[in-house]
Known about the structure:
- By secondary structure, this protein is α+β, with helices and mostly antiparallel strands.
- Helix content is about 55%, strand content about 15%.
- The protein has helices at about 20-35, 60-70, 70-90, 105-115, 120-135, 145-155, 160-165, 170-185, 205-220, and strands at about 5-15, 40-45, 60, 100, 190-195, 200.
- Helix 1 packs across helix 9 and helix 4 (about 105-115) runs antiparallel to helix 5.
Amino acid sequence: xxxxxxLKIDFVSDxxxxxxxxxxxxxxxxAKRLDGEVALDLHFQPFELNPQMGPEGQDIGEHLQQKYxxxxxxxxxxxxxxxxxxxxxxxxxxxxxxxxIYNTFDAHRLLHWLEEEGTPEQQGALKHALFTAYFxxxxxPGDHGVLLRLVAQLGLDEARARAVLASQEYSEAVREREAxxxxxxxxxxxxxxxxxxxxxxxxxxVEVFEQALRQIxxxx
Length: 220
């Protein structure tokens, strides 16, 4: 029996980006459909939608109006569309709990810590936990207490995570990664880069990812 084709995936995203949560679940479901044909070598890369956001965050309605000029009606329509897409993929968006936008830099530092010192499975588990904490539970993904609780729940090294958060460790590495992708034209997320060459942008349908993964695997 042939071995599945391994595809390197750099998933560039922010943990406060709803379309990133949708894109990740769709990508993973596409990979499941191709089980035996394709295996994902998945790496989560940092992107901050709001790098200047203060630790206290900002009211989400106010933020969307300021940043995008979105009216309350437009914001509500977007929320309903996002929640519906999430439900199709088995992910729950509790939009009524998500009242604020927060700074996500420290969450990205922990994800990078697991890229360097952990396993892909651990990094993926933390990414999923961060999406759930923010979008389903309405928690602050910049709060160190929330971050350490997620680390502990996943059975990761809480003492090491605490040391990372208490220092500036991996700050420079995260900023370098962010600058690298922005320098290569990534200005919106999610951006899914396959084998360093193929780019798929946005929270695409499962079928779109499935077709792309199959085509690229056949070329590999």
